[in-house]
Amino acid sequence: MAKEIGIDLGTANVLVYVEDKGVVLNEPSVVAVDTKTEKVLAVGTEAYQMVGRTPDNIRAVRPLKDGVISDFDMTEAMLNYFIGKLGVKSALSRPNIMVAAPTNITEIERKAIMEAAEKAGAAKVYLEYEPKVAAIGAGLDIFAPIASMVIDMGGGTSDIAVLSLGDIVSSRSIRVAGDRLNHDIASYVKNEHGLQVGERTAEQIKIEIGTAIPEEEPQKMEVRGRDNFTGMPRSIELDANEIELAMHDTLAQIIKASHDVLAEIQPELASDIIDRGIVMTGGGALLKGIDTLIAGKLGVPVMIADHPLDNVARGAGELLENMKQMKESKRR
Ligand SMILES: Nc1ncnc2c1ncn2[C@@H]1O[C@H](COP(=O)(O)OP(=O)(O)OP(=O)(O)O)[C@@H](O)[C@H]1O
């Protein structure tokens, strides 16, 4: 019997949920390619190790940018590899796949995602909006006549939505999220300390000492990079409040979008949100102090989902399982 699979085809990570098994795969969305032959050399974790360290004949590609496909062939190759690795595809049975997508994707982007999943071996492909499946994955009953609000802050996009009766009532999807924060940190270190750091180092700084609100006794971290002027390796000490400063404007954009979503809903729904609060999902939800910052700015309680990185894949898989159960009970 064909398996139901939920995929979070993310800019930073691909997560796969398999029916009856849960989230079984979580790997970086990276493909390493031989520049001469264009042959795929490695995918996922193995390819990620090569980012910033590739010799001339190897290129590490991120096939998704800002939450959507930027390199179709590489996305297909990546999906093919991951689905093959799961062992759920055979000559006799192919899985049904639900893929999560940002709310503002274009028709062309939509088709590209569907086609890549089909070519990677899906029997049927479904597409659902990211904040909707993230809310399901976070355990919210979005089908109830009561409003829920989700902020899903990923690598490339922040998807913000208010949902009621199973539908999105108001939403924003902005192509500003964790990757932009990494970029902000790298620019800050370069401008303020004259040190060049790579994408992965900037991300490590964010994860280790990054904070959304200034700290009284900021954490410190030693960071290595290349001196702007001499080109030689050098190390500096950074403190958490510098990182807060570096990320400040980008976080303000995410808060502004959340504010806009709240501003356009009806008063009854707004009252539900004040009661129930906002749930944050996605890797960005793990940024220290992000809940306190958003709660303070919007005047609404903010909770972090239990497994924020898993919610989208889990929700996509669970939605597909529900659809299957409904079909079976109708048939009976
Ligand atoms: N502890 C942490 N603190 C801050 N940020 C974190 C932490 N852990 C992960 N992240 C960030 O979360 C982001 C990845 O989140 P996630 O896996 O939800 O995104 P994605 O689904 O790949 O992206 P998108 O939904 O935009 O396509 C990365 O930018 C990563 O740096």
UniProtKB/TrEMBL annotation:
GO terms for molecular function: ATP binding. The keyword ATP-binding applies. The keyword Acyltransferase does not apply. Transmembrane segments: none annotated. One of its GO terms (cellular component) is cytoplasm. Gene3D superfamilies: 3.30.420.40. Forms polymers. This is Cell shape-determining protein MreB.
